[in-house]
Amino acid sequence: MYEMPRRKLIEISPAEEEYITVSSGGPKKAYNRRRIRNLLARRAKYAYEPVQADWFQEIVGELKLARLRLGMSQITLANSLRTSQSEVSDFETGKTNPTVEFLERVARTLGVKIKILVE
Questions:
Q1: What's the alpha-carbon Rg for the chain, to the nearest Å?
Q2: 29 and 64 assigned to the same domain
Q3: Which of 32, 33, 48, 89 could form an SS bridge with 7, CB 3.0 to 4.6 Å?
Q4: In angstroms, what CA-CA distances link 17 with 22, 40, 98?
Q5: Parent domain of 17
Q6: Whole-angstrom Cα distance, residue 89 to residue 85?
Q7: Closest among 54, 57, 49 to 2, alpha carbons compared
Q8: What is the band of 86 on the pLDDT scale with cuts at 50, 70, 90?
Q9: Long-range CB pairs of 63-70, under 8 A, 24+ apart, other chains included
Q10: How far apart are CA 31 and CA 109, in angstroms?
Q11: Same domain assignment for residues 61 and 105
Q12: What is the pTM of this model?
């Protein structure tokens, strides 16, 4: 049985210590220790790994080539799709799962047809 490729959540940067121990002045410093939130600590950032399905990469690659053949930039394509340039970039790098409606809008704007052959 074939399983759908699932995107895994990957860690981009490691987390730093969220809490630190601070001791205030005084003769009994052992009693004046307390843990406070480290405001300068950077939390771990996570992202989804790109979609690895071959058929998806092939569709995205062909749409990108069609855009480049027309001499369109990502910003020009995004403006004609009424979306942002970052969404077009995320689509071309495989960071997002586009909807069928989005794929149709991109294909119509670029003047190409998407045909899917199931063998």
A1: 24
A2: no
A3: 48
A4: 13, 10, 36
A5: 9-48
A6: 6
A7: 54
A8: very high
A9: 63/92, 63/103, 63/106, 63/107, 63/110, 63/112, 64/92, 66/110, 66/111, 66/112, 67/110, 70/110, 70/111
A10: 69
A11: yes
A12: 0.60
